[in-house]
Amino acid sequence: MLHTKRQTNRPWQKHHLLGRGNNGLDFLYFAILELLDEIKADLEPATRRSQAIPAMTKLLASLHFFAFGSFQRTVAITAGISQSRFSEVLSEVLNAMLRRMAKFIRFPHTQNSLNETKQGFFAVAGFPGVIGAIDCTHVQLVPPAGTELVYRNRKHTHSLNVQCVCDAKGIITNIVAKYPGSVHDSYILRNSALFSKLRDGEFGDGWLVGDSAYPLHPFLLTPVLNPTTAAENRYNEAHIRTRNVVERTFGILKSRFRCLDRTGGALLYRPEKVAQIVVTCCMLHNIAKLHGLEHDAMPEDNVGPSLRMEQQLNAAGTQTRTSLIQSHFL
């Protein structure tokens, strides 16, 4: 329950809906109220008929779906509305959230925010200059007829391959959620707006950290394959600990929102709507983090490591990584 002592069997009113705060349910209660205030104008019924669904019911029913990965019929019964009406409600909530994406998912761009991000990552493992940890995760779906091969990933399940960047606190700062599961991580990055901004030096002298699925760039540092010196080993150890932040973020995200995890079953929507659900859950994850709502991480069951891209070294990237190893890890 949120603010009464009477017990209820409505699962959206339990504390693990978004997470748990240090002050019990107070954090959850105020987080939901604040979110409702943010999107209420988009959800309020245009009619005052008695059958109109209140904005709070729309929001809570959608949060229930995100958190538990239930079938629409189950959520509709719990919310006291028809299945077809819940489908409309879910679309309303998704559209309301996506209109505000830029408010809740923002890559650091000012000097102060970039410096704060670098300091946060440096505190993790002493790795300097990091402005984000990047990786991809797969969200299972049922592919449209005739597109099974496109959405089939290396584990022979069907999915979207979703790219995320996060800061040291696990707040998601960038997301790309539109590519099918067969697409390689490096391709998604190479064709993203973030790549162009990094390449053009828009964020100064900072860099991302990513695994060996990505090619080495001056703005994207990867592990040293087959390290031969103590300094290279120290670099790799710090790199792994720093990059682990994004893997833990995926674990928390999928534990918080079971609709994104395979334990919740494959999402039964067209890929475009699955992408909307993924982005909305990432926004809600950030909102929960900003309200101090913590959540345990579940092991990330990804489709396995992507093919190594170390053979695509470039001279500038090699020089940047070598200089960093010599200046900070000797």
UniProtKB/TrEMBL annotation:
The keyword Transcription regulation does not apply. Residues 134-286 form the DDE Tnp4 domain. The keyword Nuclease applies. One of its GO terms (molecular function) is hydrolase activity. Its cofactor is a divalent metal cation. GO terms for cellular component: cytoplasm; nucleus. It is found in: Cytoplasm; Nucleus. Keywords: Cytoplasm, Hydrolase, Metal-binding, Nuclease, Nucleus. PANTHER family: NUCLEASE HARBI1-RELATED, PTHR22930. Transposase-derived protein that may have nuclease activity. Does not have transposase activity. Belongs to the HARBI1 family. This is Putative nuclease HARBI1. It comes from Sphaeramia orbicularis.
